[in-house]
Amino acid sequence: MTTPALKSGSQLASTVCTTRVVVVRLPADRTPEIACGGAPMVAAPPGRPDTKGLTNPATLIGKRYVDADETVELLCTAPGTGELSCDGVPMTIKAAKALPASD
């Protein structure tokens, strides 16, 4: 497996756990290093990882993760025990935006 050329839509897989993500947003002017569990992520191979019996995952399926500036956004497609990071800084779950009040 090799380090992928990142772009929106890229599918990445962890080399240390079952975490998989899809790149949702990526700035055009930089190429960040996306890692999971301290190891760089690689292009996701075909198929699905076996996540049966996984307890207390650090990455949660269906959640969006962002870097500190919220310029890099990933969507978790398979949970795992590793923590996502961007350029060595832990990523956080993207906060939901409040809907406008309807009167």
Summarize the structure.
With 103 residues, the protein is mainly β.
Give structural notes.
By secondary structure, the chain is mostly beta strands. The protein has one domain (11-46, 57-93). It is 0% helix and 31% strand. It has strands at residues 11-13, 20-25, 34-36, 39-40, 42-43, 64-66, 73-78, 84-86, 89-90, 92-93. It has a six-stranded antiparallel beta sheet, with no helix packed on it. The chain has a four-stranded antiparallel beta sheet with strand order 4-3-8-9, with no helix packed on it. The chain is globular, with a radius of gyration of 14 Å. The model has no long low-confidence stretch (mean pLDDT 90).
Low-confidence stretches: none
- Count of helical segments? 0
Mean pLDDT: 90
Strand portion: 25-35%
Nearest-angstrom radius of gyration? 14 Å
Order of helices and strands: EEEEEEEEEE
